Prior knowledge:
With about 675 residues, the chain is an alpha+beta fold. It has helices at about 55-60, 70-75, 80-85, 120-135, 145-155, 175-190, 215-230, 235-255, 260-280, 290, 295-305, 310-320, 330-350, 395-410, 415-430, 435-455, 465-470, 495, 660-679, and strands spanning about 5-10, 15, 205, 210, 365-370, 385, 390-395, 475-480, 480-485, 490, 505-510, 515-525, 535-545, 550, 560, 570-575, 580-585, 595-600. It is built from 19 helices and 18 strands. Strands 7, 8, 11, 12, 13, 14, 15, 16, 17 and 18 form a ten-stranded antiparallel sheet that branches. Strands 5-6-9-10 form a four-stranded antiparallel sheet. The radius of gyration is 32 Å and the shape is globular.
Amino acid sequence: xxxxxxxxxxxxxxxxxxxxxxxxxxxxxxxxRNVKDFLKGKTVHDDPPPWLNGEEILHERINNxxxxxxxxxxxxxxxxxxxxxxxxxxxxxxWVKKSIFWELPYxxxxxxxxxxxxxxxxxxxxxxxxxxxxxxxxxxxxSINSRMDLPLFCRRPELEISQDGRVPIPIFRLSKExxxxxxxxxxxxxxxxxGYVSKFSHCVNLNSGKISGLKSHDCHVIMQRLLPIAFAxxxxxxxxxxxxxxALFFRDxxxxxxxxxxxxxxxxxxxxxxxxxxxxxxxxxxxVIEHLPVHLPDEALLGxxxxxxxxxxFERYMYHLKKKVKNKARIGxxxxxxxxxxxxSYVTNNYxxxxxxxxxxxxxxxxxxxxxxxxxPIMFQQEGRxxxxxxxxxxxxxxxxxxxxxxxxxxxxxxxxxxxxxxxxMDNHPNITSNDMTRAKDEKFAMWCKDYIxxxxxxxxxxxxxxxxxxxxxxxxxxxxxxxxxxxxxxxQSHGQNKKTMNFGxxxxxxxETEYFGLIEEIFMIEYHxxxxxxxxxxxxxxxxIDQGIRRHPSGIVDVCPQMHYDKYDPFILPEQxxxxxxxxxxxxxxxxxxxWTTIKVMPRGFFETKEVSQNAIxxxxxxxxxxxxxxxxxxxxxxxxxxxxxxxxxxxPEDEYLSENDFIDQYDEYSDSDSHSD
Length: 679
């Protein structure tokens, strides 16, 4: 509290944490010597503030401040003209009260005493950022008062208010066309899977040009999934880079799994990210919300992943409790009474009522392939639920052979036979290449397995399912438009392309580090002849090109080009082999010949990662995700040259008289007192 370098904005009438992050940079960083883009004429040589333990804070600071009272004596806010009643306030420290938690005997020994709630920090950061970029009246941080404070602290003459009252347009503000495209993109072009996010298109107002009514989770999704790509072509590159980097920081630091060695990189990056924002946005933008992310990596090292410390579960439980309210005049008693009724009902039903076991009715759409034979491979023991109107079709000869070959090559029992087939081809064709070997498997392996096992069964005994498997499936198939499996809700593209959600994108890991992205064209079930009655659910997909059709960013974002298709015809996969993804197009002001979609992987609902999967860190579940270093941004100009396509800022002269910091605190105390009396 006594190491902060925040300062008071006389026109904005608030504290600013502008240029408070260069001291967190490594020694010798060029930003430390920059006297132009931060506070004018100032260089920074200070070290980061020390991380104090509880004993140092209590005995060396709080207990030595004269006039500092306990919370029970001065109230929760602690504002009672602290500059006059507390010695050294605003000069040596910023303490206004002594928290009641210090009365706990273990409080001074805790490593993490006050946890920063990630949910509200992310939401408030998002609100400030988006409202400023959209120039929402009354909510933007780039106001008239902000421009009046600008020449006092920064060297940005191109953004200062001119003598005739003209307010220049900053580079971080969207143009009319860009704002309309961004809001239309959010409202109509964004499609997520069912249950991934609420319908925030209702929160977008195209007429007023603003976003309102977003829930905290909506802000969480937009911040981490959409902002990294949203302004790639709508704002200048330095602005897009700075916004994208801070959004990716929130994504990485809020991962379900964090390795200790991986937290060091976000801790190193966050200071550069905030300095990049300081080069672009005015001092009024940087209130305490924009400063607190610098401490999130340290808290992650002490408290672990944020999912165990954020407010989402508590907010959801509060929603559950609010539904119990029947008498709004007695909210607390109404909740207690309803909880007692639920407990009585539970005890009565489970311990007092007659012990009758109710067998749930079987869902006719539920799929659970079970067999009397215990040695059937797990690829034929699928569980799921079909939905929608069924239809019958027939496999053509090409699909029939490709499907049978695919199933044989994906069955672990047939791995020795695959090697035997390779030896057979090498003996008959000594100079065969790897491409020719792959082509031979696609064309001949299924028939070779069938002939080999049929001939060998005359002398050796094979499992019954194996004999039926090599004969091939029935040509007739039965298909459905929807299928539920492993927490995913899959649709075919023809069924879901006109819906407001996207459930037909899939991603399959290849034999190497390559990933295959595609769209589900058909969902069907195949059956085999015989006593065992093998069955399997199959997805028929259309794949994107994995060479020129995929680009990978250093941050881990993967884009696909829908115009580039996979050359080889290999459309079939098993449901358990794929993960669900959704594709989000880039918002563009001008159409291009090649369109790119960014991929967003979806975690299954109701399923938890296993111990093996949890060894991988951050967002990627396939390989370790490496967080790249953040680079400095070069800002050539702070104002746009041609402002004809921008909405001018309304020039409203402030009617309030100038207030010093002490006068502001006095007025705040009077306002708080009048509020408490009126309540």
